[in-house]
Design a protein that fits this description.
Elements: E1 2-3, H1 9-17, H2 33-58, E2 62-64, E3 68-72, H3 74-78, E4 85-94, E5 99-105, H4 106-116, H5 131-156, E6 161-162, E7 166-170, E8 187-196, E9 200-209, H6 210-223, E10 262-267, E11 270-275, H7 276-280, E12 287-289, E13 296-301, E14 304-311, E15 316-322
Helix pairs in contact: 2-5, 2-6, 4-5
Amino acid sequence: MSERLLTQKEIDELFNKYSEKPIQEEALELLTMHELDTIGEIGNICMGTSATTLSELLNKEVIIGYPKTIVCYQEEVFKAFSTPYLIIEVRFKAGLKGFNVLVITEEDIALIADIMMGGVGELQYPINLTEIEISAATEVMNQMIGAAATAMSNIFGVTVDIEPPRTSMVPDLLTANHSPLTTDKPVVVARFDVKIGNLFKTTFMQITDVDTAREEAFFLLMKAGMFDSPGSDAAAVPPAGQATSKVLFQEMPNLAGALAVPSEVLFTLGKLQWTMGDVARLHVGNEIDMPFKTGNVELVINGLSVARGKMLRNGKLQITQICKPV
């Protein structure tokens, strides 16, 4: 299996730079750490839904890890990318304002396109991308972002709609525009480790303007009952840096706004259909009605192990361990 991670030295250095303080100093007035944590949860849910879409399109198992999220200026981000890469920008036309951007490498485009066109995910060097490969990869990313928009609609309780994606291939770092996005504010950068079958591992980079990110965090917290519903004066997005100052996150570790999102839970002995609310209520000692025989069981969502348990003689599953994301 190839491991052509986008986590090259420059990207590692960028995220390591913000490991202790994920939010750049100049951005502290725009976004709080509570909001950034909430945005990470939203990204995790949305990319999990996108992983299901990608898996169906490629007919391969897709595992997307928990995001690492930082806030910095876009120049710093794009200078760290190794060219060639493809920028796929989607703007919201309903529900949210602003944009969402995915960045993928030339090799990822070629591999995804090869699988889409019936290949086995092999690269031929030198890579020579045509409009066919770029269009195939763009369509895949478009459907992934569309699935993420649907997930956000379910989470926020409002219709989230997107415009057709705009793509831009960046062939050369020396001539690249390091400020391709229409914002002069810092951006929220989420890094997702992605594994596609036994073929390859890579990293998807998702970039969101800070105003959209704050709006997403507010919608989720409003859904969780932390703010008033739309229609009241209190429902407006709070001033920058103040949205979550009074929220006690330790009392809502699984974020109540995500509880109604449908998710297929894979058991080692079979499958059941659950919501994220079912997952959120898991705790050690739970007993769950299961149509399976006795034995040890692992609960898996989008390739991530969320809990382990054992089958009891009464036909129920007893949770023995809750697995935290790495």
